[in-house]
Every structure is written in structure tokens, then in C-alpha cells.
Amino acid sequence: MFKVINNKNFKDEIFFNKKELGEILNIYGSMVSKGEWKDYAIFINKNVVGFDIYRKATEKPLFQIIKNLKSKIGQKYQLKDQQGKIIKNSDELKNIISILNKKNLRLIK
After folding, report:
1. 57 lies in which domain range?
2. pLDDT tens-digit profile, the chain (109 residues)
């Protein structure tokens, strides 16, 4: 016999959803195939989830795509550079991805 557990917190966002993760992995995969990015890491805490992009695993991340899980009004997503400076705030992930897709945005050295 199965027992259904009703957890009202279960519906809260605790990660990237399938569509978001797909968009991130698409840009990541294309940059890996070009030889520009080499590794990634995912981090999560109660307020944010992030996708770190690395040139080498031993360095600081080149970029961080951050989703604010507690965002009430807009600016749910952030793109940060290697120094932790915010490049872009947006309420839509596609705006963050479009910055990474730009040809003039190359590896920050």
C-alpha cells in the first residue's frame, strides 16, 4: 500500500526547470564543441541555484548563471563574470543566454 505525502513546500522552485536547464546546456554544449569552455558546476542553496562555467576546473568560473529562487519582482536571473561582477540582470533566461551567444563576448582573461 502506498501512502501519498502532501508536502506544501514541494511545489516551490528548488532548481532550474527542465526548459531552463535545456537552454543552458545547449549554449554550454556549443561552446564546449568550439573548445572555449571545458567544465561546469552546479550549486544550490535555499535562495539561489547557479550554473558555473569554467575554462579549466582549477580556475574561477568564467561565468555564473544564477537563478534567484526568492525573486518577487523581475531580475530573477543574473550573469556574473570571473570577478563576480554582474554583467546582466533579467527576468528571462533567454536574455542571459543571448549575452553568452554574442560573438564579441569572448573568454575573459
Report:
1. 18-101
2. 555 555 555 455 678 889 999 999 999 999 999 998 999 999 998 889 999 999 887 889 999 999 998 877 778 999 999 999 999 999 999 999 999 988 545 544 4
Within 8 A by CB and 6+ apart from 101, the residues are: 27
DSSP-derived secondary structure for 14-44: -S--HHHHHHHHHHHHHHHHTTS--EEEEEE
In a domain, 10, yes or no: no
The total number of structural domains in the chain stands at 1
pTM (two decimals):
0.80
99 CA to centre of own chain: 13
| Residue 58, amino acid | T
Count the neighbouring beta carbons within 10 Å of the beta carbon of residue 53.
23
